[in-house]
């Protein structure tokens, strides 16, 4: 039985650990529990199909990630996990000019050929749009994508870790340091204990540069701080409200029990200060209330902060680290972490198990973020 250490229990690390225990490997999952983990703050939108991004490698990864969720949710349900945090509720892409949605509708129909999980696609008038999400300003038309989903990152991560433990994984809270022999990585040292393994996976996001620096490796990873706000309504049943994708870079999505999440800020930071700021709150509320002014009467119940890791070209990387055959990493998922993370975890597990990944790994090779 192969033994694998996974450093970092965000969405990628937890998913990797889960995929590994599912195929019978011995897994030690280690997490430092630092404030600002992206997954714990995130509320994800699974709707990559109408993006205008020209990076084909990113789209293939995101499309595959969205498609994989149904299988993953079934796996977790079979392991007795019920509060997974994933629900298909559809999405509304908003615009004040109906004609601007025609191009997106064409893109959506074209992409549905290889992504049938998109389901129904239709342009809604102002009244139909407001009916689907009653807090909205009544100026918007929308493109409706039936197969889009919402994800509570904190709930999904918890389910993945619980399922790992049920299958025999070990979970350790602590800061890991890599143990290097003359030629490769032998394991980690955590809480004063040395743990050895056949393979090690690093998936600790914006904190990875510190982990790999003793190896002489410098990573080009940008940390982007995101603040988000949780609201509470007592007047509307939020359990099946669609995800809202406005014309700007904000989002609104709802969960059971009257909870509505609005966000987010996009602050390039290097100090990892996880405090909520007055400027961040002002920015989010200002943007959200222009889109959905009827949210003004909701209570603010929670603020979350997370640091998203980005690469220079916004393309995630994963795979084996050059010169270290027993060390794999995944990083740079950015704002698409909840869409791509579980699928990347599956690819890492396949690579460790000697299987062929589902996508050409050269498109996402680790060398892209290594500084010379």
From TrEMBL:
GO terms for molecular function: oxidoreductase activity. Signal peptide: none annotated. Pfam families: DAO (PF01266). One of its GO terms (cellular component) is cytoplasm. InterPro entries: FAD-dep_OxRdtase, FAD/NAD-bd_sf. Its cofactor is FAD. The keyword Flavoprotein applies. Keywords: Flavoprotein, Oxidoreductase. Residues 3-351 form the FAD dependent oxidoreductase domain. Belongs to the DadA oxidoreductase family. This is D-amino acid dehydrogenase small subunit. It comes from Pseudogracilibacillus auburnensis. The lineage of its organism: Bacteria, Bacillati, Bacillota, Bacilli, Bacillales.
């Amino acid at each position: 039985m192969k033994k694998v250490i996974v450093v970092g229990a965000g969405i990628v690390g937890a998913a990797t650990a889960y995929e590994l225990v599912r195929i019978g490997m011995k897994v030690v999952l280690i997490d430092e529990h630092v404030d600002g983990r992206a997954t714990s703050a995130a509320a994800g939108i699974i709707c990559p199909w109408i993006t205008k991004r020209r990076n084909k490698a990113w789209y293939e990864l995101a499309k595959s990630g969205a498609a994989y969720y149904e299988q993953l949710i079934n796996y977790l349900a079979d392991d007795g996990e019920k509060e997974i945090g994933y629900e298909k509720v559809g999405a509304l892409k908003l615009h004040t000019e109906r004609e601007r949605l025609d191009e997106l509708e064409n893109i959506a129909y074209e992409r549905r050929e290889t992504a049938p999980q998109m389901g129904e696609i239709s342009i809604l008038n102002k009244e139909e749009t407001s009916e689907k999400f009653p807090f909205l300003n009544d100026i918007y038309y929308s493109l409706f994508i039936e197969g889009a989903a919402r994800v509570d990152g904190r709930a999904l991560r918890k389910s993945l870790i619980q399922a790992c433990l049920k299958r025999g994984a070990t979970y350790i809270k602590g800061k890991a340091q890599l143990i290097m022999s003359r030629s490769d990585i032998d394991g980690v040292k955590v809480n004063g204990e040395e743990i050895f393994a056949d393979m090690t996976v690093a998936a600790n996001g914006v904190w990875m540069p510190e982990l790999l620096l003793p190896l002489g490796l410098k990573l080009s990873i940008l940390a982007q701080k995101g603040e988000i706000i949780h609201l509470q309504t007592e007047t509307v049943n939020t359990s099946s409200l669609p995800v809202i994708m406005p014309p700007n870079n904000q989002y609104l999505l709802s969960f059971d029990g009257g909870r509505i999440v609005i966000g987010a800020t996009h602050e390039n930071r290097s100090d990892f200060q996880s405090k909520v700021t007055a400027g961040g709150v002002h920015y989010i509320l200002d943007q959200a209330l222009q889109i959905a002014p009827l949210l003004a009467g909701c209570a603010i119940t929670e603020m979350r902060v997370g640091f998203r890791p980005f690469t220079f070209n916004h393309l995630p990387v994963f795979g084996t680290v050059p010169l270290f055959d027993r060390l794999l990493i995944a990083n740079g998922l950015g704002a698409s972490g909840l869409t791509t993370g579980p699928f990347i975890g599956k690819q890492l597990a396949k690579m460790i198990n000697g299987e062929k990944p589902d996508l050409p790994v050269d498109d996402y090779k680790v060398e892209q973020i290594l500084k010379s």
